[in-house]
């Protein structure tokens, strides 16, 4: 049974039906709250997206990113962020995942310190997924969430649960199903507004926030917009100023040059910065797409010890700790391999090595994608970080400048790696189009960020005449043949999104052959989403 929702209040059009449970979350009062956010902030959001495009045009013309001369005083001055709440003082292991009901329960019960409920890279933004996610989170905050699986098992919250942190979509993504005054609403404002409307007061009463992760920021001006949005929400809901806290993902190349400024723009409510490593690699490719000397080798060789990633992560630690904020590490994408003990141990060894690198470098916590990795990551951090965090480690030894942050990465491109990129992007896009935004592929949990690396690497290799390690050309013909081979191989496979393989292949071919690199796979695919 669905409920038509064409008009809720004046000026708002909802262009999709809803179940009774979904209609109960998108009430006329909630819709009016969302409309007020749109009217207050959307014009400014659009102007900031225009500024992104203008900066990229300069980069495409040969400019390189750098620290801003006009904000030098902020970088050089001594200041710290506001005190961080007790619930966020120990974040040594955070688990992330989409907002489906079973995932939320398992993640909150996982033993992790925090759970990032993700409306962004691991959720396919069908309107049903988004509204169901809001229903699920409302029930989780209330402590009433439960799930009965088809096999008869019942899932409920444990007595002690992880701290909930919510990640809305980025500034660039629209919510086409919800229009205000004839324009699609920002996906970011829709996600955060609807969650805060239903849950902010209850979370404040529990001393649990609300807390958020903010994705894909490219400048301190975008951080300042978020700060003003939070101010607006707090005033509208009668919450004390500074109640809403945020951690910003530094996952774009432009943002790494403005970390001090981002912290400063959010200084009354910032809790820390996070090394969003997979999106950061994607952003490095996208931002420097016109620079032939910055072409990256295949994904498996672009690890956190290569110079541009090592300096990025260490500068983030130094910057955060200087300002009294926490420096969160990146995602371990491995998932357990249940049918191969040797391969499973090799995968877990990579996780341990990665987490050891992070904690010894000075990170205050890390991310995992699977509950089975929580105790593994926690054991590493417990051993090497006996205190709740490491903000006392100042890392004054770190020196990172434009050259080190943009350092080229040497390596090779194998035919196997080329085909692996095609497969990951094709399989992920097919799953995303079918409503699944988090997909296990070859024992790695792939989301939009890793699919974006695969997509943009292929485009970059083609545009700059890259060569395989055997001397052959990475050509359009090689891509077309590879796409056809992968598509044929997957034809009989049991996999998420199988019915959307042809649509995904057409989209990937179109994006790869295009003269201009599309900014985001998800933005290009959104009109095709069911």
Note down, in words, how this protein is organized:
The chain has an 8-stranded parallel sheet. A 3-stranded antiparallel sheet has the order 1-7-8. Strand 12, helix 12 and strand 13 form a beta-alpha-beta unit. It has helices at residues 20-25, 28-60, 72-76, 101-108, 127-142, 187-205, 220-237, 253-256, 259-265, 277-287, 307-322, 341-361, 374-384, 402-405, 415-433, 448-463, 476-490, 501-513, 521-525; strands at 12-14, 93-98, 114-118, 146-148, 154-156, 163-167, 174-180, 183-186, 211-214, 245-250, 270-275, 326-332, 365-368, 439-441, 444-446. The relative contact order is 0.11. The two termini are 18 Å apart. It has 530 residues and is of the alpha/beta class.
Backbone CA Rg: 22 Å
What global shape is seen? globular
For the biggest sheet, the summary is:
8 strands, parallel
- The percent range for helix content is 40-55%
- With strands numbered from the N-terminus, the spatial order across the biggest sheet is 6-3-2-13-12-11-10-9
What is the rounded distance between the termini? 18 Å
Mean pLDDT: 95
Percent in strands = 5-15%
| Count of beta strands | 15
Number of helices: 19
Report the uncertain regions. Answer: none
Helix and strand composition category: alpha/beta
């Amino acid at each position: 049974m669905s409920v038509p929702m064409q008009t809720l209040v004046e000026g708002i059009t909802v262009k999709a039906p809803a179940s009774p449970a979904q209609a109960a979350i998108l009430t006329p009062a909630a819709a009016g709250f969302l409309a007020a956010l749109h009217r207050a902030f959307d014009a400014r959001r659009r102007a900031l997206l225009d500024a992104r495009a203008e900066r990229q045009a300069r980069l495409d013309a040969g400019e390189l990113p750098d620290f801003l001369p006009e904000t030098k005083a902020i970088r050089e001055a001594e200041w710290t962020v506001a005190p961080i709440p007790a619930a966020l003082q120990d974040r040594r292991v955070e688990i992330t995942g989409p907002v489906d009901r079973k995932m939320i329960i398992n993640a909150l019960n996982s033993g992790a310190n925090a759970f990032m409920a993700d409306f962004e890279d691991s959720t396919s933004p069908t309107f049903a997924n988004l509204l169901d996610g809001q229903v699920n989170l409302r029930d989780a905050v209330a402590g009433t969430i439960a799930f009965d699986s088809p096999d008869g098992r019942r899932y409920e919250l444990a007595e002690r649960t992880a701290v909930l942190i919510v990640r809305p979509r980025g500034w660039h993504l629209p919510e086409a199903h919800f229009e205000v005054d004839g324009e699609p609403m920002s996906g970011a404002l829709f996600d955060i507004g609807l969650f805060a409307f239903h849950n902010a007061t209850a979370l404040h009463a529990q001393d649990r926030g609300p807390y958020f992760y903010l994705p894909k920021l490219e400048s301190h001006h975008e951080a300042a917009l978020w700060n003003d949005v939070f101010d607006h929400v707090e005033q509208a809901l009668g919450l004390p100023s500074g109640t809403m806290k945020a951690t910003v993902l530094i996952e774009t190349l432009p943002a790494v040059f403005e970390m001090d400024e981002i912290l400063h723009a959010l200084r009354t409510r910032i809790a820390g910065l996070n090394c969003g490593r997979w999106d950061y690699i994607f952003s490095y490719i996208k931002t420097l797409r016109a620079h032939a000397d910055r072409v990256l080798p295949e994904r498996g060789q672009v690890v956190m010890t290569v110079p541009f990633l090592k300096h990025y992560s260490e500068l983030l630690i130094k910057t955060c700790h200087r300002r009294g904020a926490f420096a969160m590490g990146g995602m371990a994408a491995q998932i357990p391999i249940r049918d191969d003990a040797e391969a499973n141990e090799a995968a877990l060894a990579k996780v341990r090595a990665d987490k050891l690198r992070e904690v010894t470098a000075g990170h205050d916590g890390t991310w995992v994608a699977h509950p089975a990795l929580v105790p593994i990551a926690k054991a590493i951090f417990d051993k090497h970080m006996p205190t709740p965090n490491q903000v006392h480690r100042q890392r004054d030894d770190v020196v990172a400048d434009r050259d080190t942050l943009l350092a080229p990465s040497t390596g090779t491109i194998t035919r196997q790696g080329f085909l692996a990129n095609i497969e990951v992007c094709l399989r992920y896009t097919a799953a995303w189009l079918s409503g699944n935004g988090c997909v296990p592929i070859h024992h790695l949990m792939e989301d939009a960020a890793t699919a974006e690396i695969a997509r943009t690497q292929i485009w970059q290799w083609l545009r700059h005449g890259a060569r395989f390690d055997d001397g052959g050309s990475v050509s359009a013909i090689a891509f077309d043949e590879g796409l056809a081979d992968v598509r044929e191989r997957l034809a009989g496979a049991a996999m998420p999104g199988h019915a959307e393989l042809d649509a995904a292949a057409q989209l990937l071919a179109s994006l790869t052959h295009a003269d201009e690199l599309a900014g985001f796979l998800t933005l290009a695919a959104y009109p095709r989403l069911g």
